[in-house]
Hints:
Elements: H1 2-28, H2 39-52, H3 60-78, H4 109-124, H5 130-147, H6 153-175, H7 178-185, H8 244-257, H9 261-270, H10 278-290
Helix pairs in contact: 1-2, 1-5, 2-4, 2-5, 2-10, 3-4, 3-6, 4-5, 4-6
Amino acid sequence: MIRTLSFILCLLFLSSTFSEAHQKSEERNTPDSLAYSSMVPNAWIQHFALIERWVAGMRPTVTSRALAYISIGAYEVALPSMKGYRSNQELIPGLKIPALPLDVSQYDWNIALNACYAKLDSVFLLGALPKYKASITHLKDSIDSIFKPRVSGKVYQNSVSWGLAVANEIWRFSSTDRAAEAERSIPYPNLYPSPDSIGQWLGEVHGGYKPFTPNWGNVRRFTKDDETLVSPPPPNFSISPSSQYYKEMYEIYTDWKNMNHDKRWVAEFWSDDIVNSLWTIYTNFCYSCSIK
Length: 292
């Protein structure tokens, strides 16, 4: 009940900010992305954070991949309005973003982004319960109800079609990553030989102590192959109290045993499964900076 009320209040707040943002867009009378605020992306980012934690199978590996594709889709939708930027298809082999059919003046980027986000959230959050799937439709319709009356029927349809065209290509391209699809469909593979030697992780209770997406290293990457981007190896496992590994693990254990308000605040700040946590703040900040 509390989450439902919070969601409704969030939509009411966004309605007022959307109206103000679109008024500024009309005053500037330009199709350039600088005339638009970041309210639509922010709304969908917040919504994703609200429901992702309740969707089965959405753990760090699967979630980060979904966010990567969704964000690429949003970027490609607004790209025609951004001068001096280039498409990711120049950098990612196999990605084929369609050409914008009409002049940029025939589109509203808020409407196009809304259509793209709604489509990609619905397909990447496949395991969502009906009430969460319904919330995707509800958010899409709520945003549409704000911007649709301010444009012609033709511009509205052009914008929706463009957003869906890009979203469909992103989904098609993501589906060609067979390794990722296999990991996503069977996140706890029975045939994977779980290590049982000392110093090896044994998994978690939710997966029957089986490793989650153990072959994720074979999934398509978006960073270039560069040795300078590889993290240093972790310290070697050791049960010796004088070893680096033991000291680091014992520090975590001690903090957990002696948890207080300040330590919990720090832990929740860095957590990836709490609404308005660090990754959400950073993403919203980047969107806000991009329109200034």
